[in-house]
Design brief:
- It is a single chain.
- The protein is of the alpha+beta class.
- The chain has 5 helices and 18 strands.
- It has a 7-stranded antiparallel beta sheet.
- It is elongated.
Amino acid sequence: MLKNFWYACEFSSAVTNKPKQIVLLNQRFVLYRNQKGQVVALKDRCSHRGAALSMGWLENGCIRCPYHGWKFQADGQCVEIPSNALETPIPKRASIDSYSVQEKYGFIWLFYGNLPEQERPPIPSLPEYQDPTMHPIYLEYQMRANYTRVIENALDPAHLYAVHANSFGAGFAQDPRVEDYVVENEDWGISTKITYKNYTKPKNGIFKAFFRPARTQLNAKTTFYLPNITKIESDFGRGKMINYAVHIPVDDNTTISKRIQFRNFFTYSWADSLFIKFHHKVGLEDQIVTESQYPKLIPDTLSAEVHVPADALTLAYRQLRQKYLAMGWGLQSNQSELNNCQRDVRNLIKLH
């Protein structure tokens, strides 16, 4: 896992004036909106006895701990301890960590790291969010897999005919070869363009109506933005679809992918449920194979696995990640915190 980046950690619509816990980077955070509607992000652990502040309540833009009622400002400073006499000074160590946040492109972005503001990598541009011709849908799903494997799955052009044979990838089986392609450097990322020449009508699902039964051509561009964003642009002549996904590293073995899919065809809102259903079907196909991979984390050395030319983009991702690990931007797991986070994730799974 990497520090010193902005992480899209939740949809904007999911954060209200009720405290909400999110688990990210093996740690627990609490998000809420103050009286002005601004998002506040704090460490979800009271400095007193470690209770989850997300179980507490808000008062005038501050949050109270559910255990002993300690009150914390948006900057993490403790301003009241109810059990103390009014004249008793509040210990300096009572304060908790607060985090910079931005609200952009329908996401809440949290910066985790120690870089000064002027040196921080930017939030990548998502121009389709302002394009009135592109209709969005929002969805998410969870995988019991390391986020590095989930990212590689999204970047991999060679798995389509095998993994997605029963959805959009049916036509690839006629010729599953991936032509050589060039990986380009982007600002804080990488990209490539690939043309699929033997793409034919899917077997089922909403896309069946938009592809001719004869051979056609699919132009695709795949982009990765550090630390965890993939963008897949698909142009099949009769329409264009763009899939953004932020692959949230919850803990070492859990990833939540929060997605915005844009399309410029069949843009009726009543059709959104059809696209969401199909998207989940495709996601389940990926989930089955991704959760089976071992080791869970992509290897640190390239020689640990076998590579072919079609792996150029995923290899570029590995090299980019290694670059920032070598700069000291990697995060070490705190086992105690990790165990707590994994327990929280299990509880969330039961709730759903």
